[in-house]
Design brief:
By secondary structure, this protein is an all-alpha fold. The chain contains five helices and no strands. Helix 3 (about 40-65) runs antiparallel to helix 4 (about 70-100). The longest helix is centred in the middle third of the chain and has 28 residues, at about 70-100.
């Protein structure tokens, strides 16, 4: 079992912190949109920003175990990639909510599935790639 965990450690850790990042995103969205009664797009921006900040710290330290000395470059790359997937999230939310395809909370959950997958691919291939990869 330990060998299996070690073999898939990065993916398992990404999924664990991806779930936690998604929880941060959804909780912030809910608090801002439903409790504070702020527009759903503004709530989505607040949720995105706080969840990306959480994701950067956890991905760098626990998932990809980055040892890079180029932290600023890494952080800019991370936030840029997340900005792209954040735009995907915003576009999905706009279309599904404005055209009444899905309720906003369901749309938020569905969008997060696509965002998590895209974020892993971008992080693995471009942001936290190990030397020689």
């Amino acid at each position: 079992m330990k060998d299996l965990f070690l073999k898939y450690k990065e993916v398992i850790m990404y999924l664990v912190f991806g779930v936690l990042t998604t929880v941060v995103n959804i909780v912030v969205y809910y608090v801002v949109a439903d409790c504070l009664k702020i527009n759903y797009l503004i709530a989505n921006i607040a949720a995105w920003f706080l969840s990306v900040l959480f994701a950067y710290v956890t991905n760098r330290k626990y998932v990809f175990e980055s040892k890079s000395d180029h932290i600023l470059k890494e952080m800019i790359s991370f936030f840029s990639a997340r900005l792209a997937t954040g735009a995907l999230d915003m576009g999905f939310m706009y279309v599904t909510v404005n055209f009444q395809i899905l309720p906003d909370f369901i749309a938020k959950i569905v969008a997060n599935v696509f965002v998590i997958i895209a974020n892993y691919v971008l992080s693995k291939l471009f942001i936290f790639k190990k030397d020689g990869e």
